[in-house]
Specification:
Elements: H1 3-22, E1 27-30, H2 38-47, E2 53-56, H3 63-76, E3 80-83, H4 100-103, H5 105-123, E4 126-128, H6 137-140, E5 145-147, E6 153-155, H7 163-172
Parallel strand pairs: 1-2, 1-4, 2-3, 4-6
Antiparallel strand pairs: 5-6
This protein binds iron/sulfur cluster.
Length: 226
């Protein structure tokens, strides 16, 4: 996998982005700032640094993720905008006084991820995000272009990139990994809902461990049902 291999893959993304821009559409990208998120940000930064980059800052992230977000922003010369929850944490407790992530994680994800993104979705036309088919059976069923909420389009340019692609792209461009990866974390979200990977090989197996939940809702609720 050399530069030419990736040129073929990235030229299609560049073409699609330029088509959106030529149509006068307002784009944005959301990123969870994990190791596998960085090739997309690198590709987009090489096309246009004017595409706003949003980080859905729930207030529950590992400090390492916040440091990594800032490191990547400096490295790529991009500005990152944090979305913040509207409802303060003191009002995010159940009847027993516990934060919702323990008793009602779907509601916690709604308050801290989905609701804060809604104003951005209302304002913009195209939501670019880096979901990949390899990540789960649910994501495998998605298309590169899908309809999102509030009349938006979702664009998934990395959908058919494999873990191997991500690895070699990072090596080619010397893009650093998330600092928790070397400690055994493969998929890194909010601290209360993330644990180290087990030996099952399931990349997202460390998320919401022991619960029936496998998605936060960004890629299930904010997509037009077929
Ligand atoms: S991942 Fe966990 S802590 Fe983060 S918003 Fe969802 S339930 Fe809350």
């Amino acid at each position: 996998m050399d530069a030419r291999y990736f040129d073929d893959k990235t030229s299609g993304i560049e073409q699609r982005i330029n088509e959106f821009l030529a149509d006068g559409l307002k784009l944005f990208v959301s990123s969870s700032f994990q190791t596998h998120s960085i090739p997309l940000l690198h590709i987009l930064a090489s096309i246009s640094k004017e595409i706003p980059v949003y980080f859905i800052n729930t207030g529950f992230h590992f400090p390492e993720t916040l440091m990594y977000r800032d490191q990547i922003a400096r490295l790529l010369g991009i500005e990152v905008i944090d979305t913040k929850p509207v409802v303060c944490k003191s009002l995010q407790c159940d009847a027993d006084g516990n934060l919702y992530f323990a008793s009602d994680p779907d509601h916690c994800c709604y308050l801290n991820k989905i609701q804060p993104l809604e104003p951005v979705l209302i304002e913009k036309d195209v939501w670019i995000n880096g979901i990949r088919a390899e990540q789960s059976a649910h994501r495998k069923k998605m298309g590169t272009i899908e309809k999102g909420p509030f009349g938006t389009l979702r664009y998934h340019p990395m959908l058919h990139w494999t873990n191997k692609d991500i690895y070699y792209y990072r090596k080619l461009y010397n893009l650093p990994p998330h600092p928790l990866e070397e400690k055994g974390y493969l998929s890194i979200g909010c601290e209360p809902c993330t644990r180290k990977a087990d030996l099952s090989g399931d990349e997202r197996g460390g998320r919401w461990f022991g619960m029936k939940k496998t998605e936060c809702g960004l890629h299930t609720d904010l997509i037009e049902k077929k």
